[in-house]
Amino acid sequence: MPRNTMSFSVESGFADDSKFDDDGRVKRTGTLTTASAHIITAVIGSGVLSLAWATAQLGWIAGPVALMAFSIITWFTSILLADCYRSPDPVTGRRNYTYMEVVRTNLGGRKFQLCGLAQYGNLVGITIGYTITTAISMVAIKRSNCFHKNHIRDGCHTSNNFFIILFGFIQIFFSQLQNFHKLWFLSIVAAVMSFGYASIGLALSIVQIAGGAHPKTSLTGVPVGKNLTSMDKMWNTFSALGDIAFAYAFSTVLVEIQDTLKSSPPENKVMKRATFIGISVSTIFYTLCGILGYSAFGNNAPGNLLTGFGFYEPFWLVDMANVFIVVHLVGAYQVFCQPFYGFVESWSKKKWPESTFITKEYLIDVPYCGIFNVNLFRLVWRTLYVIFTTVIAMIFPNFNDVVGLLGAASFWPLTVFFPIEMYIAQTKIPKFSFTWIWMQILSCVCLIISLLAAAGSIHGLIKRLDTLKPFKSES
């Protein structure tokens, strides 16, 4: 039902005011706990276990500094974004339901179009990357059991295709959940899973160190030598920055998460606390995984401690960690899909408001589960989207390089540029004032870092094109 119609009904007494928010929508029930869980789910992906490799490329000085710098920058810009959810006043103003609505309200015009291109392109890339990553973790379980049974370190290779398709079937089911309000339980479970596998990775690194492993490490990372040219060192350094930038590029879903919160206390205050909790917890795990993983494996740190088989035993613990990764990414896939789903469905309803295929909701009573809303357009469109990401994941088994490029390219506009520009516009910060100048300097520095990271990802993608084998992904 359109916003104006619903609001009129509430104001006229045709509905119970206590069941609706100030915008006429059903009262939101999100809390600090659910918002924090959503954020942790969005931030901590399986990429946390690749940070040992990133630290190895950067070294003991630049590695931890980069992790902390990205964390602080992301937290700062997320705080700015929280104040832009309502406009023009951050507490009593009109709600903006999506990231793009915030951009349109505060900046409008061409910047709004560029935001849409960056945001939704990034979200599609992430979901394809998660499909591949989940399949690799599923295969890793099978491989670790093979290693344990046959006592070998090579071989036991398995096609990823079956597991990519299996993940697709799972997502078709979960994709029918309407929005973030229906995802709170999935995000909490996924957040617990992220703690689980990150903790296992940390514990195994500590055991490796305690066992007397003394791998070579360096203040500047993997040294240039016989197996690494100075050019390769440079590209690897840029790629490492891209990995870290992508790990923190989750701003695209922050507004949608904030839109789930109860209106009292004010959403921006709760969201700032949730952001601090989410990013703090994530940064602790990121830093520990990076530092301890580098300490355990040194310059030979694998791309992923659990799927790259930096560890082989105890095999059951490695299996458990990979199960945690799979469960987590099932939830994370949906967290990143929801804004894109919402955009397409909202646009379709405005374009064809008279179409019952698009607008009509059917109530279905599912035994022991309650009543679910089913919409035919939502059923068909979301299913087709999941099929699309599944097929692309099978065609381009090295799509992670493309996702790295999308992450590097989107970090600056979505995490830094737009939040800063929107905050400046909403609070009317004078041009060339001290605050305006240092915010612009921060934005320019992040732009340069994103461009370098994108260059590293492009270089890695070009190197892998020669070995591309569609539908023949194998781990």
From TrEMBL:
<protein>
    <recommendedName>
        <fullName>Amino acid transporter transmembrane domain-containing protein</fullName>
    </recommendedName>
</protein>
<feature type="domain" description="Amino acid transporter transmembrane">
    <location>
        <begin position="29"/>
        <end position="462"/>
    </location>
</feature>
<keyword id="KW-0812">Transmembrane</keyword>
<feature type="transmembrane region" description="Helical">
    <location>
        <begin position="317"/>
        <end position="341"/>
    </location>
</feature>
<feature type="transmembrane region" description="Helical">
    <location>
        <begin position="161"/>
        <end position="177"/>
    </location>
</feature>
<feature type="transmembrane region" description="Helical">
    <location>
        <begin position="436"/>
        <end position="462"/>
    </location>
</feature>
<feature type="transmembrane region" description="Helical">
    <location>
        <begin position="120"/>
        <end position="141"/>
    </location>
</feature>
<keyword id="KW-1133">Transmembrane helix</keyword>
<feature type="transmembrane region" description="Helical">
    <location>
        <begin position="402"/>
        <end position="424"/>
    </location>
</feature>
<feature type="transmembrane region" description="Helical">
    <location>
        <begin position="276"/>
        <end position="297"/>
    </location>
</feature>
<dbReference type="GO" id="GO:0006865">
    <property type="term" value="P:amino acid transport"/>
</dbReference>
<feature type="transmembrane region" description="Helical">
    <location>
        <begin position="184"/>
        <end position="214"/>
    </location>
</feature>
<feature type="transmembrane region" description="Helical">
    <location>
        <begin position="35"/>
        <end position="54"/>
    </location>
</feature>
<keyword id="KW-0029">Amino-acid transport</keyword>
<keyword id="KW-1003">Cell membrane</keyword>
<dbReference type="Pfam" id="PF01490">
    <property type="entry name" value="Aa_trans"/>
</dbReference>
<feature type="transmembrane region" description="Helical">
    <location>
        <begin position="60"/>
        <end position="85"/>
    </location>
</feature>
<comment type="similarity">
    <text>Belongs to the amino acid/polyamine transporter 2 family. Amino acid/auxin permease (AAAP) (TC 2.A.18.2) subfamily.</text>
</comment>
<keyword id="KW-0472">Membrane</keyword>
<dbReference type="GO" id="GO:0015293">
    <property type="term" value="F:symporter activity"/>
</dbReference>
<dbReference type="InterPro" id="IPR013057">
    <property type="entry name" value="AA_transpt_TM"/>
</dbReference>
<keyword id="KW-0813">Transport</keyword>
<keyword id="KW-0769">Symport</keyword>
<feature type="transmembrane region" description="Helical">
    <location>
        <begin position="379"/>
        <end position="396"/>
    </location>
</feature>
<dbReference type="GO" id="GO:0005886">
    <property type="term" value="C:plasma membrane"/>
</dbReference>
